Amino acid sequence: MNLNGIRETSGALRSGKISCVELARAYLDAAERRNAELRAFVSLTEETALAQAAAADERLRGGGESSELLGVPFVLKDNISTAGLRTTCASRMLENYVPIYDAAVWELLRAEGAVLIGKGNMDEFAMGSTNETSYFGGARNPRDTSRVAGGSSGGVAAAVAAGLAVYGIGSDTGGSIRQPASFCGLVGLKPTYGAVSRRGLIAYASSLDQIGPITRSARDAAAVFDAICRRDGLDMTSRGREGVSGSLTGGVKGLRIGIAREFFENLPPDIDGAVKKAAGLFEDAGAELVEVSFPLLKYSLPAYYILACAEASSNLGRYDGLRYGYRTEEYSDLDEFIRRTRSEGFGAEVRRRILLGTYVLSAGYYDAYYNKAQKLRAAIKNEFAEIFTRCDCLLTPTVPVTALPSGGALSPVETYQTDICTVPVNIVGAPAVSAPCGFDTDGLPIGMQLIGDAFREDILLNAAFAFEEMTERKYLTDAALEVIA
Ligand code: GLN
Q1: Hey, which of 79, 80, 89, 127 would you mutate to test ligand 1's pocket, going by the most ligand atoms within 8 Å of its Cβ?
Q2: Which atom of ligand 1 lies nearest, measured to the CA of 127?
Q3: Per the CB 3.0–4.6 Å rule, which of 61, 345, 448, 450 could disulfide with 93?
Q4: Are 126 and 79 a contacting pair, CB within 8 Å?
Q5: Cis link prior to 152 (omega < 30° from 0)?
Q6: Domains of the chain
Q7: pTM of this prediction exceeds 0.85
Q8: Catalytic residue positions?
């Protein structure tokens, strides 16, 4: 079981069962073979992977201390900057953009000897929940390729779930790590705002964006989080924190788990049943279930979409065709140049959000929308603060649906509504984990979400780890590449 987790892969490399270069080659070949079908990667980074792997073999031969991530293949979402390697945000606007600097997370992982296999497909500029806004066509779900992998970090989740990378790094503005993890039967950690540096992450909504891992187990999520949760002097919102791997005891005795009724309203019975069954198992293991209430849940979604679009309209103002990125060919003056560049370079969903964001920030509507959303943000923060005086974490479903069929099954607004359980977390900057806890009647994975107070990733990952132990890891996706298995 779970033969291809980080520890197992690292063990195989250290025992000499396979070299880092052989392993990288095997992953690259598998990714190459399956990518046309899954569209998990926007680009494969073969040269970088093989060079990193050769250096990792060298370090292993030299002996001495090294990280568990040394030589282990992984995937990075394509909105995380990699110097010299195309970084597209799955947008026509950045189709040929090659950054000149590295994101902080990539610097950290590379220093540990991690092997980058490729850049993960995503919704354009991370705006979406299905991957279908990707300029390159959305990633498909390895569990059932007629379904979406989720969004926006769907390519990362598809790669990990299909065994084309051991783990992945995504970004989460309103659920983009947790939701694809849930759709693909994986663990996704959205860290506390500020725990991981955002330097080099191409911004969507800066007060909500956070980088984190998508993995096949809670243990792997902790291992990756430990490598990237460093303070970074070049990101003024970065705080960093201590590593959490040491907190994974598997004990939940006395843990107070809050259940807020609002998260369970109008759920399909199989999702409701799976999450409540998980709550029962926690209780059997000695946790205490505490009834709490979160009446502001229904306001979280409109508040989120107002704030996210407002920030996006400002962040995406930089794409004017003058400095970098796509530029139109036909124009008669500067105004037309910028207008055409932006209309042609951005897809429909990105344009919709820029318009919406510009609208809510405009002089006549600022108070009615943006200011009101900011006030809601403060109220939601207070509500969470009150909840965390009564319990150590909240248990909710991650998404009120399982992986949707491809092909635009829902309208834009219906799609936004599926983010209801994940967005409150970003609004308050809290950490949350999605972990697999069951299957629906079609055999598709169901995820549960554990939400904690700021910087309590340790509690969340330990609870997820405990759940894996008590259910004998039966809900985890284990895509074993034969070279290791
Ligand atoms: N689905 C949400 C949105 O479209 C969240 C996306 C994200 O977390 N990047 O805004």
Answers
A1: 127
A2: 4
A3: 345
A4: yes
A5: yes
A6: 2-256+389-482 (3.90.1300.10)
A7: yes
A8: 77, 152, 176
